[in-house]
Amino acid sequence: MADLRVGLIGLGMMGRHHARVIREVEGLELVAVADAYGDPHGVAGKLPVCASVDELIAEGIDMAVCAVPTGLHEKVGLALAGAGVHTLVEKPIADTVEAGQRLVDAFESAGLIGAVGHIERFNPALQSLRARIEAGDLGEVYQIATRRQGPFPARIADVGVVKDLGTHDIDLTSWLAQSPFTSVSARTSTRSGRPHEDMVTASGQLANGVITSHLVNWLSPMKERLTVVTGEKGAFVADTLTADLTFYENGTFTTEWEAVSNFRGVSEGNITRLALTKREPLRVEHEAFRDAVLGLSNNTVTMREGLNTLRVAEAMLDSARRGVVRDL
C-alpha cells in the first residue's frame, strides 16, 4: 500500500515537531508544508513552503496536520474538510465553541476523520494509569487533581491559559475517569499584562461522582505536569514530563509511633514506581491518526470530544467572570 500523503500547515514550535515525527512514522510521507510567515525552523527541507491552505491542498494530500494559531483553526479546518482531507488539528479544537461546532459538523458530514491533538492521552504514564484504573487497581476513584504550571510561552497570543494549557487537564481528567464534567467552578487572574488570563484554579465534578481540582498557570519559574488520582486503594501519581507513574498503596500495617501517625494517618503502605515502556507521545498520536485514516482502529481524540473539552473550558471562564458554579 502506498504511503499516505501528508500536508502540514503551521511551521512554528509545534509544527517543527510534527514535521519530524511525520517523517519518522511508517506509512506516512510528508509531501507539502505551508505557513504564511515562512519556515523559521527550517523543517521544510527540500519541500517548497506553500503560502496558504489552498496551495497545500493543491499538492494532493490525503491527510493534514493543522498547527496554526488557535484563531485560525476554523478557517483552515473548514478548507481541509471541504477538500476531503482527513485532519488532525492541534488543541484546542478552536477558539470558540461555535467555531468548534462548525468544524465538527463539517468533518462528520463529509465522513472524514477529524481529530484534536490532546497529546496527553498518548503519554505512557497516563495510558498505563487509565489501564490500571480500568483493571480495578485503585478500586473506586474519588478524586483527580492536576497541576500544570510553568513559564509563559511566547508562541501563545490569541487565547489564555485555560484554553491553551487547561484543556489538557480537562480532557485527560474526563478520559481517565471515563465520565464527563457536570459542573465547574473557577477563579482566574491576569498578572502578566497580557489580554488573556494567565492563571486559573478550578474545581469540578464528573457525572460519576469523581471530584476534580486543577491548578494551571504561565507564571511559575518551574515546569510541572502532575496528575494525582486518589481512590479507595491508594493513589497514583503521574508525571507526564518524565512519563513516570508511581503508586502509593493504602497501608496494611498499623503505625504505632504516635508522632508519625499524627501526620501520616494511622497506617501507610508500599510506594511503587512502575516500569513503563516509554514512547514519544507525539509519535503514538500520529500512529493513532494514521490508523484511523486507514480504518484500522479509532483511538484518536475526536473533534466531538475536543468540542466537549472546549465547552468545559468556556464554562470555567464564565464561572470566573461571574463568580458562580457552572452546571454543564
Automatic annotation (TrEMBL):
InterPro entries membership: Gfo/Idh/MocA-like_OxRdtase_N, Gfo/Idh/MocA_Oxidoreductases, GFO_IDH_MocA-like_dom, NAD(P)-bd_dom_sf
Key words of the record: NAD
Domain GFO/IDH/MocA-like oxidoreductase: start-end pairs: 127-236
The keyword Endoplasmic reticulum is assigned to this record: no
Entries under Pfam families matching the protein: GFO_IDH_MocA, GFO_IDH_MocA_C3
Domain Gfo/Idh/MocA-like oxidoreductase N-terminal: start-end pairs: 4-118
Record GO terms (molecular function): nucleotide binding
Protein name per UniProt: Gfo/Idh/MocA family oxidoreductase
Species name: Arthrobacter crusticola
